[in-house]
Amino acid sequence: MMYLVLTSLLALNVSKEIIDTFIIMNESMEITTRTFTSKMDNTYSKFSQQYSLNPNKVGPFWSQAQDVQKLANELIDYINNIKYEVIITTDAKINTVEEAKIAPLDEIASKDRFTEPTRYFFGRSRTGEEGVAGDLKRKLIEFRAKMLQYMGLPSDSDRLGLITEGDFRDADGKKQTWEQHYFYYTVLAADVAILNRLIAEVKNAEFDVVSHIYSEVTAEDFKFDQISAKVIANSRYIFEGDKYEAEVIVAAYDTKQNPAVYYMEGADTIRNIDNAKQVDGEAGVVKLSIPAGSAGLKKYAGIVQVLDPSGIPQNYSFKDEYIVAKPSLTVSATKMNVFYIGVDNPVSISVPGISNDLILPRINVGSLTPAPAGNNYNYVVRIPKGSTGKAVIAVEAEYSGQNINMGSSEFRIKRVPDPKAFIANVNDGPVSKNALVAAGAIIPRPPEDFEFDLSFVITSFTFVSVRSGDIFSSSGRGNQLTQDMKTFITNAKRGTKVWLENIIAEGPDGNRRLGTITLVLE
Q1: Does position 173 have pLDDT exceeding 70, yes or no?
Q2: Which of the residues 179, 195, 293, 479 has the least number of beta carbons within 10 Å of its own beta carbon?
Q3: How many CB atoms lie under 10 A from the CB of residue 76?
Q4: Rounded CA gap, 427 and 37, in Å?
Q5: Range of the domain at 364
Q6: Count of CB atoms within 10 A of residue 336's CB?
Q7: 342 touches 506 (CB < 8 A)
Q8: Quick one: pLDDT band at residue 174, thresholds 50, 70, 90?
Q9: Statement: residue 514 has pLDDT above 60
Q10: Could you tell me if 46 and 145 lie in one domain?
Q11: Helix or strand or coil: residue 188?
């Protein structure tokens, strides 16, 4: 009733309170849709389970349910597209479908406008029957008719909602079409709420129809005389710190039958039962035991064969997989026990028993990328400038459609060590004047025990010496000695001391001041 009253007021000057009410109602519709979606997922999951247990019997019903799901999804996609288009048409700040999808209704500036939405839904049609609103009505009618057919109900049944026929009138009591009643001069906030309400009704109809179809699936073909609780583990590979999860179900079986199981290791399905191994059951139960050989991911497929009440063998397929491995994680830096800033840090990551393509590592700082083929490591870590503290590599492994937490490892973040400055292969001590002039450039070298490829560039330095009791000082750009410096060296006496100081080197993680080169000219 509140909804009809609010709709009738939309042709008036809509107050902020009414707009806020539509926003609240829209949020309620979105929550309702999510609730129905969750219920539908649960129903489809149970339906799928019944189909896997007895595909011959459940197959026709499962096919109908999938058709209903397809029709519902198509209609919901259509309504959503209308919703996004009317938002884009009305609000000048929203230009794409992606923007419309994520725009909260209460933050849309044009939510109180009604001219653009009316033009969008009606076009040139006065009643709306020839515009977008009319197309929407016809699709709702078509969908509802098909859903009633699946339920075996007449077309005039009042089940399922989505009613588009009735005595629709405006605030003055004047008769309206369905299109006029809901979309003629209604503000954008109301239009979005109405469309989301229709989506919720479609999901509700889908739930009613699929539940009806599912109720027609029974287990009357087989008679069971024993019921027991069974535990089905969700994971067959449990690690320290992880959780053991399982489903506890009630299973019914016939103790007077001895079903047979045929299985093949390493297979996804069995095409020829003659090639499979057979395990006989006892008192309605088959115990399958497969020796665990080499480590790794193992899979198997099989068939359970039981007799139906008429004595005809019925086959039910199954498959599963498990991991044979000692739970452990190996993460090692192949060169050092730290990660250096600004260089490629080679890293090897592996999990025993798990293929490398199923390992999913991530790092909390910088980047972790696959290494080029042919290396003795499989990942490269890059730590950006300014990083401090520790880097953590966390690893998950994909198994049975789930990501299993394999643990994590920490690495210290450090700056690469300072290089040492040389000129003419000398860092300290005597040097030939000719060799010094011939070399003419300062070269930075990484420490001898540092195995990474470093790239430092000398950007500036100061040349200092003493001549005739006066200090000679000259600044250099880059790493090259200037002509004045070379002339000074050529004219200097043997035994003259030269200092190359304030040496600035630019490296992968910023600038460094290198140690002074102290030379004695020979």
Answers
A1: yes
A2: 293
A3: 19
A4: 74
A5: 330-414
A6: 16
A7: no
A8: confident
A9: yes
A10: yes
A11: helix
